[in-house]
Structures are given as structure tokens and as C-alpha cells.
Amino acid sequence: MERILFSLRPDDAAAEDVGRTLNEVCRETGLGGQPQQLDRLHVTVNGVGDHAGFPDDIVQLARNAGSRVRFAPFEVRLDRIGSYSAGRRPCDLIMLEGDAGVLDIVRLQRALAAEMARCGLGKYVRRSLFTPHMSVLYRARPLAPRRVGAIRWTARKLLLIHSELGRTRHHLLGEWPLSA
Fold it and tell me: What is the value of pTM for the model shown?
């Protein structure tokens, strides 16, 4: 399966902070699992579907939508870690926070959704409650939410990513600087 998604990626320093924080939490709690590779860390802004083959036409529409988004750079701040289980999937460990930086991710998602609809991708627009998060560990046992040292970075680019599901590979399909 081929997943297409819009996302934000932490800068290298923030990705390293995620790795250190995750190691610390695992050491303190005895938590195991499969950590996300640091170069694949991201916060999904909106998916553009899972497809049986590479969807060239949808990718072109997504590129058009991404190029139209106008949104100023903003600080992302993640300072809680806990588990989340989606349906039959194993427990995912996620980091999330409800501060202004995460609220800006929600606002960015709304701006992106409007452009996706204008470009013919309305059926992929997220209509359910959107909780910005970063998945950092898979196949872990549940972990009660807890505070961690804040992971911060300035979101400066909106990315369009192709994820080869099950192969742990991400390919950059497009990137656009955030600017008002």
C-alpha cells in the first residue's frame, strides 16, 4: 500500500530530543517496542489516502493544494507522552500537547483542508476531531499519560510524503515554505 500525507517534520535537534526523551521514558518504565526512526518522525496534518498503487493523479492534485497554502511559521511544542490504540492496531506511543503550537497545527490543517477541497481532494479532508500528535513507538504496552520535557521546533515547511506502508520508507514528494 502507498500512503500519501501532508506532514510537519521536526528539525534535527528536536528529533534528537525526541530520541533522548523516548529512551529516558523507556528506561524509567521498562517500556519496550519498536521506536520510530528519527528521520521519519512527523506530525501528520492531513492524509491523502492509502492506495494500491502509486496515485500520480492524486499526487499532482495534492501538490497543487500544498502550493496554495498560506500560513506563517509557528512553534510546535510537545510535552506529554502516552499510549493510544486505534482499532486493531497495536498500541502506539504518542506525544501531544494542547498549547498554542499544537493549536496552530489544527489551524494549518483547516487551511490545508480548504485548499485540498478547492483542488479536488475534498474526499480526503479530515472531518473528524483532529488531535495533532507524533507517533514515536510501536507495539508497546500501554503507558498512562505523563509530562516530559518540552520538545520544541519551529514548523517552517509543509511536506507531502509518500509512505511505503510496511517498508518503513518515506519519500518526499513536495515541500512548501510556511509564509503568511
Answer: 0.92
